């Protein structure tokens, strides 16, 4: 597709962002990400080695920053202080890299965001010079607050992380999209390619996923399916769907000039 989007001043050809966790090994990780066509890959700093554990295999040997935009994230953080500390470490490990994904969780069972701590961390990180993409609830008011703080992208959940339940509240997503002046990227809950397509049809700028690909029976094939789902949904959004009607008296085929019996 020639339709691109810009994030933190850089233009990307793929609107699919993918995670790097839950694969059986780094070889499968790379194969799936290549099949997805993603340019941006997110990495859980507290769970994945990108150089902080000397002597262990590093993800960056398989996904070098020269070929992919690495997006460090704060998965596993439950306080603003932990999240800020984690991303400052990531900036050191990645030679001053400032594009990051913030998530502050409020519950270890549901992985639902803790929004007061998320807002607190976002404010600190923006003041500290980070370009913050932020995982959040699908609350339009809090999404607007995160944009006003200075986050460069807002990432509302479609449903709970790892649930595969798809988009449960499209109306809230539309409210967030309609008011936004920054990219809106669905993060969490996508289960299959049709979920990704729906997110894009609603007008989202992109979709981020991990479990939907990594936990599939064939992750590489699912990555390819997700690539196509995002592209199809985006094209449908740009095309503009026909209005919904309870019924229509206008047939698809013209009736003028029909031979009368």
As a percent range, the share of strand residues is 15-25%
Mean pLDDT: 91
Q: Rounded to an integer, what's the Rg over CA atoms?
A: 20 Å
How far apart are the first and last residues' alpha carbons, in Å? 49 Å
Structural class: alpha/beta
**Reading side by side through the largest sheet, how are the strands ordered?**
5-4-3-10-9
Q: Give the number of DSSP strands.
A: 10
What's the helical proportion of residues?
25-40%
Poorly predicted segments: none
Shape call: globular
What is the makeup of the main sheet? Answer: 5 strands, parallel
Sequence of secondary-structure elements: EEEHEEHEHEHEHEHEHH
Question: What would the keywords be for this entry?
Answer:
single chain, 8 helices, 261 residues
Explain what the structure shows.
There is one protein chain. The mean pLDDT is 91. The strands form three sheets. This protein has a five-stranded parallel beta sheet with strand order 5-4-3-10-9. It has a three-stranded parallel beta sheet with strand order 6-7-8, covered by helices on one side. It has a two-stranded antiparallel sheet with strand order 1-2. The protein is built from eight helices and ten strands. The radius of gyration is 20 Å and the shape is globular. With 261 residues, it is an alpha/beta fold. It has helices spanning 26-36, 80-93, 115-127, 140-149, 170-179, 193-201, 211-214, 219-239; strands at residues 5-7, 10-12, 16-19, 40-44, 69-73, 99-102, 131-136, 153-156, 185-187, 206-209. The chain starts with a strand and ends in a 22-residue tail after the last helix. Strand 6, helix 3 (115-127) and strand 7 (131-136) form a beta-alpha-beta unit.
